[in-house]
Specification:
By secondary structure, the protein is α/β, with parallel strands linked by helices. Helices cover 29% and strands 27% of the residues. The radius of gyration is 17 Å and the shape is globular.
Length: 196
């Protein structure tokens, strides 16, 4: 169970009895995120690129023009996030009803062969660019792209192997990537540098 508790005007992240100082500075790309820093605004690309790389770059342009500090991608493939099945439990609901999750994710994922180029493009526009990995292969891929941070998706915070893989990339004894996670509406918790 994860909790954020307020004690003596300092926020602490409680993770199975361990305490992390949320007042610690976080460095992502060229930005330092700290208690007295300006808001760090992240634009979520998600599936809004609609499988069009030019549109993806236009989203980055719009994020830069709007004053964002970063753009966040999602790194998965249909095969790494679900199975190709017609079973009821693998059918999309709501707006996407009538197609399987596999079909939905086939239309929504950001092709991996675009990601390093999009990261470079964002950097040229003055934006940090990082991603939400959804499995170990995505973390390995993002390491090869030298992403400055990971954002673990809310529904993935209970994926202990993913959390460990994202948090514990070492360069000697130092952690070389920031890992942030958040639950909808509750803010973000800084997870990097935590040892078991």
């Amino acid at each position: 169970m994860l909790q954020i508790l307020k004690k003596d005007d300092r926020y602490k992240f409680i993770d199975i009895g361990r305490r992390l100082d949320l007042n610690k500075n976080i460095n992502i790309g060229s930005h330092t995120i700290a208690q007295n820093s300006p808001v760090y605004l992240v634009a979520e690309m998600s599936a809004n690129h609609k499988m069009d790389k030019k549109r993806a770059k236009a989203i980055i342009d719009a994020a830069a023009e709007a004053g964002a500090d970063a753009v966040k991608l999602q790194t998965y493939t249909p095969d790494t996030i679900t199975v190709n099945s017609a079973a009821e439990c693998f059918q999309a609901r709501g707006l996407w009803q009538g197609q399987s999750l596999y079909e939905l994710y086939s239309q929504a994922y950001t092709p991996w062969e675009w990601q390093e180029e999009l990261m470079e493009y964002a950097k040229e526009k003055g934006l940090d660019c990082f991603s939400s990995p959804f499995d170990a292969t995505a973390v390995d891929f993002l390491e090869s792209c030298h992403t400055p941070a990971y954002k673990v998706a809310s529904f993935e915070v209970n994926d202990i192997p993913l959390m460990k893989n994202s948090r514990y990339r070492k360069a000697g004894d130092d952690f070389d990537r920031n890992c942030i996670s958040g639950r909808c509406g509750s803010g973000c918790a800084y997870l990097s540098g935590t040892r078991e």
